[in-house]
Amino acid sequence: MSALGRLIAQENTASDLLAYLVELDPLPLVGVLGLPEGKYAARREARAGGRRSRLDLLVYRSGATDPVAVLELKGASGEHGDQLERYAAWAASLTDVPRLMYCTLDGGTTGAPPAPWQLLSLIDLFATWQDSAHPHAAWLAGEVTTLLRQWDRQADDVIGSATGWYVPDLVTRRIAAALGDDAEALRTKAGNPMLLAYRRLPGDSEAWLGVDLRCEGRDRPKRPWLFRPFVEVSFSDPTAQAQATARRLAVGLHDAMTLATVQRVVKNPDALSANKHGGLAGFRDGAPVFYHDKQVRLATQFRLDVRQVDRHQVAEMIRAVVDHLETVAAELHLPGQNATAETESQQ
Predict the structure, then answer these.
(1) Which pLDDT band, with edges at 50, 70 and 90, does 346 fall under?
(2) Strand partners, 195
(3) Model-level pTM?
């Protein structure tokens, strides 16, 4: 089913398949959305106000000019900026406000979308055609639903055993949801799934401790992910002062961020490995050199063997490392950006 998987992995083609099912038999869609009886049709990639606003699927009752439902499908990617808010504002401007459905494989595992959007599982959506009177629709829906259920299970299984194209995205989003408000699923510049888990440095409002988790590519599921304990200062404004503060914090914590130390605080130490410098990029004139982003997020870097762990174990590892860094920072009374600013103002 690899060819079908490539189609489902792309939101545009998944939406096309859904529109095709509606063409073959619109009745299942009426049922799953709770619409009144009648004739309905679907329209793909319709504009919703501005030039950037193109909705995945709009459902119209025969003879009506306004849609009765809007379906936004999300697979590998998440919400783009204020996308859902813009679509909701457009829907609210219509004479007859449509139902807004946010369709994702995450189900309820990563939280609810913002109101007035309603969550609808992609599995439940496609599965409704399995009982269709149209044999082609029933067959296609069965194939798609089987594949989506497989990917959903893989996201909770050993990460390195996954075959679904956007299972790594599901993994990072579900880990972020498990960690709570102090974590978010993002993308690297190369478009690969990543996660940031962070916590403010004790006694400081401008510095953070955390773990940066990065998938290195969906095409090789068994390839190790990067697991990077970090300190960060003013990422949105990487001034020389912020870089100097981040450097001072990282040097103060570098023993706590090396592989040997981190392995002592996690339950799956064998899943982590590093270079000969224990996760540091190296040493220069005897001083530690860190991996970095903009010189204000300084990190050690380990390889996480995803053939050994599932998302639950990774979430536990991340939580343990962040707790560990917070404890060490508090014991060392490390000053951050606030302390630097206060010192300079007194001079």
Answers:
(1) very low
(2) 185, 213
(3) 0.88
Is residue 12 within 8 A of residue 50, CB to CB? The reply is no
Tens digit of pLDDT for each residue in 275-323?
999 999 999 999 999 999 989 999 999 999 999 999 999 999 999 999 9
> Using one digit for the tens of pLDDT, what is the confidence trace for 53-92?
678 899 999 989 899 999 999 876 666 557 889 899 999 9
Which structure tokens are listed for 296?
């204000």
Q: How far is CA 13 from the centre of its chain?
A: 21
CA proximity to 290, closest of 278, 279, 280? 280
Query: Is residue 286 classed as helix, strand or coil in its secondary structure?
Result: coil
For residues 178 and 315, the answer to whether their CB atoms sit within 8 Å is yes
Whole-number Å distance between alpha carbons of 105 and 149: 9
DSSP assignment of 173-238: HHHHHHH-TTEEEEE-TTS-EEEEEEEEPTT-SSEEEEEEEE---TT-TTSPEEEEEEEEE-TTS-
Question: 187: closest CA among 219, 214, 165?
Answer: 214
Average pLDDT taken over every residue of the chain: 89
- Measured distance CA(198)–CA(211) in Å, rounded: 7
CA-to-CA distance for 41 and 22, rounded, in angstroms?
A: 7
H-only helix segments in the chain? 2-9, 11-24, 27-33, 83-92, 122-127, 135-154, 167-179, 240-257, 259-265, 311-332, 337-346
User: Helix (H, G, I), strand (E, B), or coil: what is residue 12?
Assistant: helix
**Least trusted range by pLDDT, from 9-13, 107-111, 239-243:** 107-111
Q: Tokens in use for 232?
A: 């960060």
Rounded-to-integer distance, Cα 136 and Cα 255, Å: 62
- Indicate the burial class of 235 (C-beta count within 10 angstroms; 0-12, 13-18, 19 or more): middle
